[in-house]
Task: inverse folding
């Protein structure tokens, strides 16, 4: 069996149980694919010895029977997850040299299920970015290229390394995190599937915090079925995260029937933005037609406060970030600036943070500091929290009116070129225009690849579900995936 | 509202991030672009809206008020840039 690294989780799981393949073989195939893919910049910390050790343990466990679904599956872990004894830097200089003494709950659950960590994956610094260009390691690169061009494209962000690694078959799947679209936008840019669960489904414990009321971890996979399998392994109640939901995690995979007859899918008119490219418009219309053909009822809906989601997000997320990132002070972990004679503790903080944080992170920490400062707290922060309540109410109302799921584009464009000058910080923020509402309302959302643009680049659609109903959401995504029949893979140039 | 260089310097100070004098103008410009974008929120009437405190209605769990963790001094200090004699070490705070 050649190219084991190209397998899906479901295929590998079944082959492992039949004895057609071992975890050691799967892991070796991935490690060799990673070794040949330096040009993608996807893996930033390599843990081959640990991977082989875990693969051997997984094989022993599989032999004994009763191993969980993820046992023996080689995965990549986003650099935002703290992994015991393995560098966990959030792609920031300020966490240079940091090796956690503990394991995040989510990566720990995967480890305990027998999944094999291959290494840590590139991302935007502290998950702040939409192109992976704010990373201290330099950007991850999209394995996809436009036809007839060798220009390097972004895999999206912030989970750019995860998306690049999954699309290029360097691993069977990867973890991502999503604060404003950081799982779904990179998935759409790379022809992969990305699930952001309902807020509270995955424990945030041990994941470097960006904006705690918005952050959620989720799986990034090759298929919807894999998202169901890996998602279930990542979710579950954790007493160490007070916002983690004490709810049972259903068997999502068993819910993938592809039968969506009678489901009501909302098409929100506010997502039809001015200047939306014709290709995105067509992708959306085609996707809606596919769901209709599969027996769903389409209904036009209104989410009137959509337009205010991005501005509300750019108050709330930086505010929470400024508070969360206050811990990086050069005292307890990570980087400390070299001090001059006579420098006191204030100079240590200021120099450490100036040298340790990149430009976008500093910008957001300072914006957050400003909107929380005396005199502006009500005008900015409290107002944004009120607008957030209105955005959530929009969704509550359509769900109460009988909508089961909502179909939207995942991104306003296909993957764009790396290295373009971004003079206006707001321009990059628009990447999240279709995804950010979902974080503000705490809902589950999934990006599914459904087509290619005129230059042969993948495009994705987003489905949004009711809270806690990831199973139903994934089933609709499965029906869309089946109908779209997306099988394209990037040509190997790296 | 427009942010000037003095305000930019004040915010940088509050955030404990050193910004060189010559970079303040560009920083103020970035702030203004972002805050200009945020200004849209003023179009909405939010007088009767409660600010969101929790996206999913849930009651915080309670547990026994007992010590459940600790005695990990070596682990706590393991990643410190400067640790001495069981403590974090920093430059002199009080003259």
Result:
């Amino acid at each position: 069996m050649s190219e084991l690294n190209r397998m899906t989780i479901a295929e590998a799981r079944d082959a492992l149980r039949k004895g057609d393949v071992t975890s050691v073989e799967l892991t070796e195939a991935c490690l060799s694919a990673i070794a040949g893919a330096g040009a993608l910049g996807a893996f930033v910390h390599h843990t081959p010895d640990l991977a082989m050790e875990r693969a051997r343990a997984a094989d022993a466990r599989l032999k004994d029977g009763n191993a969980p679904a993820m046992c023996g599956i080689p995965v990549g872990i986003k650099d935002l997850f703290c992994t015991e004894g393995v560098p966990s830097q959030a792609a920031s200089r300020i966490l240079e040299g940091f090796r956690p003494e503990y394991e995040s709950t989510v990566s720990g659950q995967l480890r305990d299920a027998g999944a094999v960590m291959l290494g840590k994956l590139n991302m935007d610094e502290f998950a702040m970015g939409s192109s992976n260009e704010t990373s201290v390691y330099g950007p991850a690169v999209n394995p996809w290229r436009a036809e007839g061009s060798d220009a390097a494209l972004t895999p999206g962000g912030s989970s750019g390394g995860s998306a690049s690694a999954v699309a290029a078959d360097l691993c069977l799947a990867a973890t991502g995190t999503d604060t404003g679209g950081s799982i779904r936008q990179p998935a759409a840019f790379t022809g992969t599937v990305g699930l952001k669960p309902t807020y509270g489904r995955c424990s945030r414990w041990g994941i470097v915090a960006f904006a705690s009321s918005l952050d959620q971890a989720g799986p990034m996979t090759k298929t919807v079925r894999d998202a169901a399998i890996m998602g279930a392994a990542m979710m579950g109640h954790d007493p160490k995260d007070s916002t983690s939901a004490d709810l049972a995690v259903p068997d999502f995979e068993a819910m993938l029937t592809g039968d969506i007859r009678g489901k009501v899918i909302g098409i929100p008119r506010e997502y039809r933005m001015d200047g939306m490219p014709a290709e995105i418009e067509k992708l959306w219309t085609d996707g809606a037609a596919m769901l209709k053909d599969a027996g769903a009822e389409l209904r036009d809906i209104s989410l009137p406060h959509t337009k205010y989601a991005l501005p509300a997000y750019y108050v709330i997320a930086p505010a929470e970030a400024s508070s969360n990132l206050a811990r990086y002070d050069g005292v307890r972990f990570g980087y400390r600036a070299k001090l001059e004679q006579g420098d006191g503790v204030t100079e240590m903080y200021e120099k450490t943070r100036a040298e340790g944080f990149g430009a976008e992170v500093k910008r957001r920490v300072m914006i957050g500091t400003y909107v929380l400062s005396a005199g502006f707290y009500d005008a900015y922060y409290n107002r944004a929290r009120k607008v957030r309540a209105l955005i959530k109410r929009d969704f509550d109302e359509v769900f109460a009116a009988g909508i089961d799921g909502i179909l939207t584009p995942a991104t306003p464009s296909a993957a764009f070129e790396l290295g373009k000058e971004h003079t206006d910080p707001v321009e990059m923020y628009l990447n999240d225009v279709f995804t950010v509402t979902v974080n503000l309302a705490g809902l589950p959302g999934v990006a599914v690849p459904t087509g290619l643009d005129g230059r042969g680049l993948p495009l994705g659609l987003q489905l949004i579900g009711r809270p806690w109903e990831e199973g139903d959401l994934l089933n609709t995504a499965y029906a869309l995936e089946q109908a779209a029949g997306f099988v394209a893979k990037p040509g190997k140039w790296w | 509202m427009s942010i000037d260089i003095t305000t930019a310097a004040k915010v940088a100070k509050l955030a404990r991030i050193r910004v060189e004098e010559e970079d303040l103008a560009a920083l103020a410009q970035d702030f203004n672009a972002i805050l200009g974008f945020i200004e849209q929120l003023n179009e909405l009437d939010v007088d009767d809206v409660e600010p969101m405190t929790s996206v999913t209605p849930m009651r915080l769990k309670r547990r026994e008020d007992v010590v459940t963790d600790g005695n990990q001094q070596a682990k706590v200090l393991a990643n410190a840039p400067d640790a001495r004699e069981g403590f974090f070490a920093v430059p002199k705070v009080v003259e």
Chain B has three helices and two strands. Chain B has a mean pLDDT of 93. Chain B touches chain A through 49 residues (CB under 8 Å). The two ends of chain B are 41 Å apart (CA to CA).
